[in-house]
Amino acid sequence: MRTRxxxxxxxxxxxxxxxxxxxxxxxxxxxxxxxxxxxIAEPARPDDPRTDIYAxxxxxxxxxxxxxxxTRVYVPNSExxxxxxxxxxxxxxxxxxxxxxxxxxxxxSWDLRMLYADNDLxxxxxxxxPRTGTRAGPDLPVLDPYNLYFTLDGTRAIVVAERFRRLEFxxxxxxxxxxxxxxxxxxxxxxxxxxxxRYVIASCEFSGWIVKVDVASMQMVGELDVKGQPIDVKLSPxxxxxxxxxxxxxxxxxxxxxxxxxxxxxxxxxxxxxLYVSRDGRFLYVTNRGEGTVSVISFATKKVIADWKTGGSxxxxxxxxxxxxxxxxxxxxxxxxxxxxxxxxxxxKIPVGRGPHGLSIFPQPGRYSLGHTGIFR
Length: 377
Hints:
The chain contains 1 helix and 31 strands. By secondary structure, it is an all-beta fold. The radius of gyration is 19 Å and the shape is globular.
């Protein structure tokens, strides 16, 4: 991670162009050129692990499994069939390798010992060793892995087979299918688990529905028509409300997972897409891909308290382990954005391959990974 001192030095140097190992220029934005909204200032919420599902993901709370693993940012380029690896301390692309056809996300395994590039149309997973930041062996045959998740106990992987309209429960050691859940709506793609892991809420982007699936029985047990295009799903820190980004309604639905009812809707911006919880669990960052902004929702008030302009097409990503930066892929601009979470300043734009999508920062604090680009508990 860059230190505050380094940030200050770079700011005084003015605009700078750095050269990456791929020969691309990296734009570090000087302080005078950054969008500078008012820093977020709200009372801290009580730090009570009994009411915070993210209590084990605070800064410094790393699992022994990631000891000595260097921090890297992994960018799957869906249109280039490749992964770029970025050193977040320098903002440089330090490695680049080919993977299968149309990688959508880079997903940390439940035990935090492996990463997987989810090669959707290639019907494979590419294993990546986070200690070396390179491929860890041949691709694994897994049908249509648009997205990948793991149950809370780590005994099952859940492959989101979007084009086949189903969730496949697999053994994460052998990758054999142990159960299949047909989804009656088009575009199943993102989800999150209830606090106790009993069920998942999954979005169906192309049909406007969300569904509820019981993990133990591997059966769909509920559904709700929210209209529009529901995309990313995140559970609130108190475990009571599922936040569901809706790309064509330009905001976020607040869903009661027990009753499967929409409690309210929060407008954020055009093309609301990705959802990321702040490191302290107080805020939800919403990427508005069609507007080139990030909205900040307070979990305490359930209202937007800030809007940050990135430009481009902010999509998927994650928060750094110290919570000071938000990294996002620029889906239609072949770039990655680095945002200061203190005030929304755009710190850098880093060129990558075509169609960057489910960017993953690894390692992160937490006991285990539930999948996607890094949902840690």
